[in-house]
Amino acid sequence: MSDNNETLESLLQEKRLFPPPESFKRAAVATSEIYKEGEDPEAFWARTASELHWFERWDKVLEWNLPFAKWFVGGKINASYNCLDRHIGGPSRDKTAIIWEGEPGEQRTITYFDLYREVNAFANALKKLGVKKSDRVTIYMPMIPEIVIAMLACARIGAPHSVVFGGFSAEALRERINDAEAKLLITVDGGYRRGKVIPLKQSADEILKDTPTIESVVVVRRVGDILRTAMRQGRDYWYHDVVSGAEEYCKPEQMDAEDMLFLLYSSGTTGKPKGVVHTTGGYLTGVYTTFKYIFDYKPEDVFWCTADVGWITGHSYIIYGPLLNGATQVMYEGAPDYPGRGRWWSIIEKHKVSILYTAPTAIRSFIKWGTAWLEQYDLSSLRLLGTVGEPINPEAWVWYYKYVGNEGCPIVDTWWQTETGQVILTPLPGVTVCKPGSVAHPFPGTGAEVVDEHGNPVKPGGSGYLVLTKPWPAMLRTLYKDEQRYIETYWSRFPGKYLTGDGAKLDEDGYFWILGRVDDIIKVAGHRISTAEVESALVDHQAVAEAAVIGIPHEIKGEAIAAFVILKEGQEGTPQMQQELRAHVRKKIGPIAVPETVIFVSELPKTRSGKIMRRLLRDIASGRAPGDVSTLAEPAVMAELKQKYESQEAE
Ligand code: WT7
């Protein structure tokens, strides 16, 4: 469970209540009635699904062969048709879909009709390059409009996309391309980050010799002449070349509701990332509905989700949720502090953003930078705030409420996962009385419980494992090519209940409070990183014999990574070696997985059966007296570790 004890304690003592403002309540999209409607989940989800366009209506809302769900059985639907064609027939044709701001300052405004045309043209280009229904396409791109076009073009022709976050390393990209057996890669010459150009195509070139299934690569020209981008004849194509002259209409593929819409890799508790499989009809219904009610969506809103499209938050609440609802949204390419720490606030002022959805780690940075940055801007367009990705400490919640929301905006703290596809636990704005730090209640038509070791629900006031008790439309259907792992990871611990991997508390009023992961997953700045993945990257270095990785509390990131490393005989634990190991992890996984601290030790605390006791490492790192050490094979290692940790920390 999370070691952030300070946060935990303040969280559990939090008593402040924030009822929805009266004016908000009067005009809210959700009323308490929808909780009643949600008591019949199938009827509720069928009602909202009917608001989408179906080529053929389903015969059956849900077929539940635990743990395998099929939603809207027999229904035929297309994601791109619902995000685009459905709007352009009416008054939304010339409505702005995306207001894009590049980091260097350029701006592009893209209407629904513009997006429709570009998606159709690119869909035809993909077909011409040989992509067929059900072929996987990997996308490795920064936050530029072409990533939206690329995803929707894939959806249009029924080719599942697999987006790999642009901050991942080339090796991480290779692993994901090969697992997906992708036929085509869509990437970019380079992207901007804090003024620097990140050459993504060049990175991809490092590994494209080891990706046997890739037949072609499409490259978007983003930075142009700043980089000399090598293009291999017969394999690499510029995006602008393949779309020029492409036909402007591409008939959308009629997909079965249960056909795969996309794959998204996420960290699990072993070193190998899991390919989370999302299908079409249920996923679209789940994100369409949650976007509408949780963000209180009105046609005149300007929505801004600050996540990267490379994560599930971007898939569900930049691509599919907002576009299915016909919303106008802001998309920003770069860093929050570039060129200055007021960048986000200037974007909100300039584009009159009304709904802001971001992560606690960003809020904690803003708190640290001070309120002077936001006070220079007019943020009065904001009417609703959201947060996601990790527990928010009550003080950060209240700061967000006070300084960003000017005490007038409800805050929706939304709990969900790559696997859930859609938000599950959340307040409903205009309905729920919010408690800072609590994710409130299950969204209508979904079910959650906090259970003890035996799977029995805890009494109000108790804590335990967070489980989900009912199938929901956007749930993952399986792990790609690994059904066994799907069953074992989510459905084996408590029969009939989905294991989230999070600890939670249920308070006396029935509100849920997330306490953090109970497995070997770390949340660094809201990003999910498995200890095993970082450990594998470390032992892959020739000097390393063994490694154990834990999460340690971090003021801004929530958690940071600490690595305990045993070097091979003859290797020296120098500061240079620390740097080398950090660089190695960066190369294997990417910057987000680089350990904050690397500590060289000669032993690790292990059980007699050889399992590393990370719990004891966490005790050492947080300066706590070690918990139960009776199962330790060599109790003496604790003293050595403690001494090493403290002396190296002091350096
Ligand atoms: C894990 C899932 C879902 C979008 C981004 C993360 C943590 C997520 C909250 C929240 C406390 C949260 C959980 C969860 N988490 N939202 N509002 N409060 N914790 O997706 O990378 O799949 O991570 O993020 O630990 O299991 P993900």
From TrEMBL:
It catalyses: acetate + ATP + CoA = acetyl-CoA + AMP + diphosphate. One of its GO terms (cellular component) is cytosol. InterPro entries: Ac_CoA_lig, ACAS_N, AMP-bd_C, AMP-bd_C_sf, AMP-binding_CS, AMP-dep_synth/lig_dom, ANL_N_sf. Residues 93-472 form the AMP-dependent synthetase/ligase domain. GO terms for molecular function: acetate-CoA ligase activity; AMP binding; ATP binding; metal ion binding. One of its GO terms (biological process) is acetyl-CoA biosynthetic process from acetate. Acetylated. Deacetylation by the SIR2-homolog deacetylase activates the enzyme. Its EC number is 6.2.1.1. This is Acetyl-coenzyme A synthetase. The gene is acs.
